Amino acid sequence: MKAWTRLLQAASALAIVLASSVPTAAAAAAAAVEPGFVRSQAPGPISIPLRQHVPQRSELEHGPAGIRPRGRSRSSKEEVVHWANTHRMHLRQKYRLPDSSSPLRRDPQFDPTALTSPAKAEVRMSNYRHDSSWIARVQIGTPPRSYNLLVDTGSSDCWLGAEKFQLSNSTTFLQTPNAIFDVQYGSGNVSGIMGHDVVRMGSGDVTFVSEKQAIAVASKITSSLSTSPQVAGIMGFAFESLAGVDAPPFWLQANISERRFGIYLQRQLTSLLNVSPDIFAPGGTLTLGGINSSLFVAGSENAVEVLERSYWLVLLDGLSAGNQQVNLSGQQRAAIDTGTTLIGGPDEVIAEMYSKIPGA
């Protein structure tokens, strides 16, 4: 794998990372959550609404994504190079990119015909920090308390900051003896204790429950990942092989009838750009247990094979800048990741893409 030298900030928080060789696989989806949760007797798919939080300038410049915000003054060449190199390193670490090519491996469990599901839950999501992150409400513990967690299809763990999740507030939290949580993300690392508790996620009429969901309580968080007053942590939606502990993520462990989810990401309205930073904006829908067919035109579905059960990694069919095609230099794989705003790729692919953009 050739070194990654340039990064393109995406307009939305759904990022695609191109790699000529990535040892893991991935695919993702997200939505939003209603404040109230009711256990369903016959659980099926749930859609959870998302909301968007509008940040202050300091949050934009130093937030978890570590991106350069829209409207920021032009940086010097040295600052741009430093920014690009930093995020190149973050992407290589997050996706465990090797220095040389490796053959593609395909997921033997892939079934392109599995496009239907009996029931589902719709969870509203929030758009946070100007299309930087999408947040869903999750209930954890006994009695259940609601927390805003970042929906991340690029990781598999569920963790909360220790200042947000007080162990004494839940009678069902059980710490795992001698277990340490220490995970490296693209923009920093998180460490703390491990345990398990009751986790609920869904909408008013249908809620999915994981009675003993592995969760981490983080006491040390890299500054670039530090949670804001409104966000408590991260809920991972990738596969178990990426987890920092030997435990499946919520979407694979909860009482969901069909192990699928769908994500509709809603952009922040221009009219909301200048509202209070404490306001969450509508951010779309997370559908648990299936897909929401009302969000796309019937017959427009396109089944894409997931190459491995780690990241949501798929083959990229093509790339264009304007009306000009970009040479992908053979087969390229793309990791679909709602937890980052970056688009990155091999040197020659990104260089050619920029060459087709006037003024780039």
TrEMBL record:
InterPro entries: Aspartic_peptidase_A1, Aspartic_peptidase_AS, Pepsin-like_dom, PEPTIDASE_A1, Peptidase_aspartic_dom_sf. The active site is at D152, D337. Keywords: Aspartyl protease, Hydrolase, Protease, Signal. The keyword Protease applies. Residues 48-77, 94-117 are annotated as: Disordered. GO terms for molecular function: aspartic-type endopeptidase activity. Pfam families: Asp (PF00026). The keyword Hydrolase applies. Belongs to the peptidase A1 family. This is Peptidase A1 domain-containing protein.
